[in-house]
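> Could you send the Large ribosomal subunit protein bL9 prediction when you get a chance?

Sure thing. Input:
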Amino acid sequence: MSAVELILLQRVEKLGQMGEIVTVKPGYARNFLLPQGKAIRANAHNRERFERERVQLEAQNLKRREEAERLSERMHGLSVILIRQAGDSGSLYGSVTTRDIAEATTKAGLTISRSQVILPEPIKQLGVYEVRVALHPEVSMQVSVNVARSEEEAERQARGEEIGAERDDDASGFV
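Output:
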């Protein structure tokens, strides 16, 4: 199947900036870019329409970016704690997903959707992780996610204590 030409209406990571004409696979256009309003087809009518509305679109984009930057500054250093069950080795019985992180940050005062959480792979171990949250295509912030078995363990992890090593020391005293 042939590629599709689109005009980007906003910056898309790893693809291009607003206003660029890009060539993508039909499925990517049909299933992601077009339904989410990130792009329009690059035909003659849409090119003319985009050029007429370009100033307005850039102004809206700038306003949304400034709001995202202010929010990022206000919520800088946000840390959330997720309590999960785990084995003795620190492996979780499930995994922490983007939905879990989005719900925790919403409870902490930053309302985001799970699509804004950028998690390269699910979290499957206890520990403290830095997770990127995209507030705007051009603005993102780091959120510290502390995954622990209990509140006390989360506090110890936040201080930098090694949870697994401490358990080994305790166990060696009983042998």
